[in-house]
Amino acid sequence: MNLLPWVSLFFTILWASTVVAIPSQTTDKRASSPFVSTSGPGFVVNGSSLKYIGTNAYWLPTLNTNADIWNTLSNLSALGIKVVRLWAFNDVSTIPVNGTWFQLIQNGTVTVNNGPNGLQKLDTVIQMAEQHGLYVILSLTNNWYPLPLLNSTVPPVNSTAFDVTPGTNNTLPRNYLSNNYGGMDLYVRQFGLQTHDQFYTNPSVLTSFMNYTTQVVSRYVNSPSVFSYELANDPRCNSTLAASPTCTTETITTWHATVASHIRSIDPNHLISSGVGGYLCTNCPKLYPLAPAPAPPATSPAPGKKKRSQAKPVTKEQILRERSERRRRNREAAKRAGTLVEDGVRVRGRWVSTATKRQQTPTLGSVYDGSYGVDSQDISNIPDIGFSSFQLFPDQQSYGPVDPNVAPWQSIEQNGAQWITTQAQSASAVGKPSILTGFGLVTQSNAPSFVPFNSTVAPFAADNPNASTTYGVTSQQQADTYTSWLNTGIAAGLNGIIQYQWGQSNLTAEPGTTISPPTTTGESPTPSSPGQAPTPQQTTGQSPNDGYSTTGSTTVQQILGNAAQSIAAN
Ligand SMILES: *[C@@H]1O[C@H](CO)[C@@H](O)[C@H](O)[C@H]1NC(C)=O
Ligand SMILES: *[C@@H]1O[C@H](CO)[C@@H](O)[C@H](O)[C@H]1NC(C)=O
Ligand SMILES: *[C@@H]1O[C@H](CO)[C@@H](O)[C@H](O)[C@H]1NC(C)=O
Ligand SMILES: *[C@@H]1O[C@H](CO)[C@@H](O)[C@H](O)[C@H]1NC(C)=O
Ligand SMILES: *[C@@H]1O[C@H](CO)[C@@H](O)[C@H](O)[C@H]1NC(C)=O
Ligand SMILES: *[C@@H]1O[C@H](CO)[C@@H](O)[C@H](O)[C@H]1NC(C)=O
Ligand SMILES: *[C@@H]1O[C@H](CO)[C@@H](O)[C@H](O)[C@H]1NC(C)=O
Ligand SMILES: *[C@@H]1O[C@H](CO)[C@@H](O)[C@H](O)[C@H]1NC(C)=O
Ligand SMILES: *[C@@H]1O[C@H](CO)[C@@H](O)[C@H](O)[C@H]1NC(C)=O
Ligand SMILES: *[C@@H]1O[C@H](CO)[C@@H](O)[C@H](O)[C@H]1NC(C)=O
Ligand SMILES: *[C@@H]1O[C@H](CO)[C@@H](O)[C@H](O)[C@H]1NC(C)=O
Ligand SMILES: CC(=O)N[C@H]1CO[C@H](CO)[C@@H](O)[C@@H]1O
């Protein structure tokens, strides 16, 4: 049983490389399908394996013209990018005057918008993706909806009002930030509930979410360009609304199993994935335990047949060992360079050892101990979940301790690389493919636009009184780190790596939409005089920038383009 996918992959490769059709008897039926499926740790489409570089563009369905959607897809496709991850939800509690929305969630009642500014926009994106030979990952809801952050008893005055304090860039239109598309906390609030995790457990909310899911999924059952339905972006026990004390990893794993099984019942064709940040919990109880390692075969395998090496589960000891190995290497390099700082402080030019540092008990940190209520490996092992997934955002999350013997950005790069290889190992223990669904680093030039996913405040915006010194890495450090992570991911056998996020210029701007006309003095369109015909909207806008956009960085685009060639050849 266990060997079957490997046998079929073997024939698939043989078939692809000889162009001679082999009777499909031994081949997995799904392998020749135009829908993406999995075969052991790989993806298969039309009998060929698929590995890819992707990008995120949550705002695609909110663009104002079809030409804008088309141009964006053309631009990223021209780089060799194959997959676009985007929001297939856009929940509001009041119908906006202009712009796109998919679902009205109001006082416990839910209405889906099937109109031209509703799910038809998503239809257009998916149809155009298909015409470009691109795949889409459709995320169905969001953990993050920090609105209204300032006064939770007062709903937003209107759908364009966002936040009102300095530093919030309160002119940002709805849907500009990735966390302003509704999501879990909007359901919780509008159903009169209190805690974030009631989203996962309240029967009325669950019914509504499944209803929305049904309506989205049934539209695309036959579209080969859907790569997967992603249940939620970054699901956790808490968000702006706090978690209840009863929320555990089992709460969130159970929710995944329930929704995945529901989707499977209406769509037999597409993969289903999680969207989790990738948090692991080496010691949590499992609802979907890893199968015990099979006993080694009594006879050696036939010549030429590779035996699958037994994947090892991730352990606390292993993570700590890898960390201390890395520190040792960094320390030795620093010694050679004469820049050693670890375990010491400089006192009048001389290093003095600080014993206390060495006595600290090493801990794994929150990404490995289940404190977010997420056990990604247990979720990946749910039968209806097609592949393992994770994210990498060091500006919002620590992936390990800082090593004083390297520059801070190098610590971030190294911890990120370890996160990638650990995730590849975790997926391999489950026997499924692994996708990095979002990674990004904020640069100094993007810092003023950076808004963390759990917040509406741009902490480094010029109008924030708190904005202090420089924040973020240099463009060169970003380029080096992205290159390192992409190479690490490709070498570790990740099946897909999706950068966050795409930047597109020359988009049609319209008032009250995500792409609004520039408001800065000098750039605003000239108002027409009375009696004259209204001035047509001629201004163009940029796609949203939440601190990670590639707008203006051809370097990042080149890095992605190179990685696309490299991963396809791997
Ligand atoms: C898969 O095969 C179908 C039918 O021949 C074709 O239309 C489609 O473009 C192919 N897809 C890919 C990704 O090659
Ligand atoms: C990229 O998008 C622009 C519009 O922003 C468009 O004019 C151009 O043709 C596109 N390039 C490609 C290669 O599709
Ligand atoms: C919300 O719904 C409840 C019960 O369904 C109803 O009593 C209440 O009047 C509604 N509130 C508003 C503001 O519509
Ligand atoms: C499901 O959605 C449809 C369309 O918006 C709506 O008419 C129906 O009332 C919903 N059902 C439930 C149980 O929410
Ligand atoms: C929130 O708004 C309500 C109603 O205007 C007001 O009574 C309350 O004081 C406000 N709370 C805060 C923290 O501003
Ligand atoms: C929305 O609210 C903001 C802030 O209260 C106000 O300035 C703006 O005029 C309102 N817009 C609409 C369309 O009502
Ligand atoms: C500024 O910093 C203070 C103290 O940390 C915090 O309470 C406040 O919310 C911050 N304001 C903004 C706009 O970020
Ligand atoms: C959410 O959970 C994390 C991890 O336990 C914790 O650090 C954070 O304070 C919590 N946030 C809220 C808003 O409850
Ligand atoms: C958002 O998350 C970061 C990182 O976990 C944390 O430092 C910050 O306090 C959080 N902010 C809010 C508003 O929850
Ligand atoms: C901008 O977009 C328009 C409309 O899609 C297109 O005609 C024009 O060539 C584009 N310009 C540039 C510089 O890409
Ligand atoms: C909606 O769009 C129309 C037409 O572009 C514009 O005149 C109006 O100001 C917009 N309304 C809002 C609230 O942005
Ligand atoms: C995301 C965004 O629009 N950021 C802007 C916030 O406001 C400052 C100054 O007003 C701008 O410099 C940022 O670009």
The overall average pLDDT, rounded, is 85
Strand order of the largest sheet: 11-10-9-5-4-16-15-14
Number of domains: 1
Task: Please describe the biggest sheet, giving its number of strands, its sense, and whether it closes into a barrel.
Answer: 8 strands, parallel
Write down the Rg.
Answer: 25 Å
* CATH architecture group name: Alpha-Beta Barrel
Q: Which percent range fits the helix content?
A: 25-40%
Strand content: 5-15%
CATH fold annotation: TIM Barrel
Q: Low-confidence parts lasting 5 or more residues at pLDDT below 50?
A: 1-27, 148-161, 304-308, 355-359, 520-536
Shape: globular
Number of H/I helices: 13
CATH homologous superfamily annotation:
Glycosidases
Keywords: Glycosidase, Hydrolase, Secreted, Signal
Catalytic activity: Random hydrolysis of (1->4)-beta-D-mannosidic linkages in mannans, galactomannans and glucomannans
Organism: Suillus placidus
EC number: 3.2.1.78
Could you describe the 3D structure shown?
The protein has 570 residues and is of the alpha/beta class. It has a single domain, classed as Alpha-Beta Barrel (TIM Barrel), CATH 3.20.20.80. It is built from 13 helices and 18 strands. The strands form five sheets. An eight-stranded parallel sheet has the order 11-10-9-5-4-16-15-14. A three-stranded antiparallel sheet has the order 1-2-3, with helices on one face. Helix 2 runs parallel beside helix 3 and helix 6 runs parallel beside helix 7. The longest helix has 23 residues. It is globular, with a radius of gyration of 25 Å. The relative contact order is 0.13. One 2-acetamido-2-deoxy-beta-D-glucopyranose binds next to loops. InterPro entries: GH, Glyco_hydro_5, MAN-like.
